[in-house]
Structure to design on (429 residues):
């Protein structure tokens, strides 16, 4: 661990104070889960197909202060959302299995559903929950619903708090699976395991490489710098996040699940053509040679999805090499190419995000940029030379404000562009 300026002592104190008031317990008894947001510089939209992705936690995220409730109640308040959430751990059922509840799913996509989802995930794998939590959750201001995985950070935070309160020892790998259950089964989003893997496995200064098919992962460090260098690699670059002002939950946007389906349709055609029709229809089951031999069979939109998958996997491989040799400019160029493929092949960038990406790419010191997350809302992420980060931020703020006066007022001015750094994985403090 190291280098993490988040969370600050003041943030922790404030949360302990609130939970102490809510529960009537001493502040010293309040534990806090710090669950970071993440970026995925390379490896976009291929996790759900079993591709290899790169990711990194940042030094911003979700804080969940909690105490064990001592009974079967979960009682929650939020820093971002109104109203309290209260339910019993023995009354949670999956809304996707229940027609009556499923019709309430939009309503249920309120912030409380992640806590219910965490209880559901743990119980569906027979984890023994004997008590709930009394907790207060809050995210870094202005950064919710922005394509930096606030939802996975929230899911992981509830899982870790419930596990801690119930003395359950759970590995990061098991929590990756639990969070998958929250998203895929409880919320009905057919996403992959990129987000929670980044949140649970990152380590400050390294890039996480995750094979989403085999679940093998490793942390990649740039090479050691000689003594004559005054700075470390992680001080050489900053992470710039530029927010579009578009916010909408992915489950409310059928575009995400539609793209997943299209990738599977492309996989089905390619697997059948290569005599492998019995394999699970995901693109990672298609050999590269088989893709090249049979891609002419794909309808134009399916051909584009497959092209994104195979070219993105290649960019990840090249990017990992560039990162391991400290070639941030080369790494940045690949990020930019990845962003272009998201627009042209995966066809998921909404207009404001595409415009924002173009602005970010013109900013001084930017090595490369793409939109973050699924690409239907949220922010653009860029790797920027640390010496130019402040200048790049003002440039983007000014240009985007001129171009999108309709969206910028929806953002707090300080949060149009945020400069942050790499961070550590989720932990209980
Ligand atoms: C969202 C999903 C992830 C991943 C990214 C795009 O964050 O939750 O599983 O597909 O989009 O790379």
């Amino acid at each position: 661990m190291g280098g993490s300026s988040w969370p600050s002592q003041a943030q922790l104190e404030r949360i302990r104070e609130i939970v102490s008031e809510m529960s009537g317990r001493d502040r010293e008894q309040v534990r806090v889960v710090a669950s970071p947001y993440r970026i995925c510089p390379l490896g976009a939209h291929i996790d759900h197909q079993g591709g290899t992705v790169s990711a990194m936690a940042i030094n911003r995220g979700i804080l969940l202060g909690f105490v064990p409730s001592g009974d079967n109640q979960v009682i929650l308040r939020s820093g971002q959302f109104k109203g309290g959430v209260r339910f019993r751990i023995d009354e949670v059922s999956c809304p996707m299995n229940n027609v009556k509840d499923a019709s309430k799913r939009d309503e249920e996509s309120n912030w409380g559903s992640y806590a219910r989802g965490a209880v559901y995930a743990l119980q569906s794998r027979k984890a023994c929950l004997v008590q709930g939590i009394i907790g207060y959750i809050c995210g870094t201001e202005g950064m919710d619903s922005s394509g930096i995985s606030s939802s996975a950070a929230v899911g992981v935070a509830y899982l870790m708090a419930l596990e801690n309160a119930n003395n359950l020892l759970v590995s990061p790998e098991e929590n990756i699976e639990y969070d998958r259950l929250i998203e895929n089964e409880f919320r009905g989003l057919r996403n992959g395991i990129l987000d929670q893997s980044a949140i649970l496995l990152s380590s400050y200064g390294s890039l996480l490489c995750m094979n989403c098919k085999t679940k093998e992962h490793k942390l990649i460090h740039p090479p050691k710098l000689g003594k004559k260098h005054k700075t470390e690699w992680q001080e050489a670059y900053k992470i710039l996040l530029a927010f579009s002002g578009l916010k909408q939950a992915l489950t409310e946007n059928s575009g995400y699940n539609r793209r997943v389906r299209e990738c599977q349709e492309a996989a089905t055609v390619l697997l059948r053509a290569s005599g492998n029709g019995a394999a699970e229809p995901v693109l990672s089951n298609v050999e590269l040679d088989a893709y090249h031999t049979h891609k002419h069979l794909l309808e134009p939109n399916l051909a584009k999805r497959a092209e994104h998958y195979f070219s993105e996997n290649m960019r990840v491989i090249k990017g990992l090499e560039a990162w391991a040799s400290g070639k941030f400019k080369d790494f940045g160029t690949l990020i930019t190419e990845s962003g272009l493929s998201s627009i042209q092949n995966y066809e998921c960038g909404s207009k404001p995000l595409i415009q924002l990406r173009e602005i970010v790419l013109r900013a001084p010191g930017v090595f490369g940029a793409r939109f973050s997350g699924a690409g239907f809302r949220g922010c653009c992420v860029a790797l920027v030379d640390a010496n130019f980060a402040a200048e790049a931020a003002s440039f983007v703020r000014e240009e985007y404000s001129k171009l999108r006066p309709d969206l910028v007022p929806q953002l707090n001015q300080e949060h149009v562009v945020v400069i942050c750094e790499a961070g550590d994985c989720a932990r209980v403090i």
Remarks:
- The CA atoms of residues 88 and 368 lie 47 Å apart.
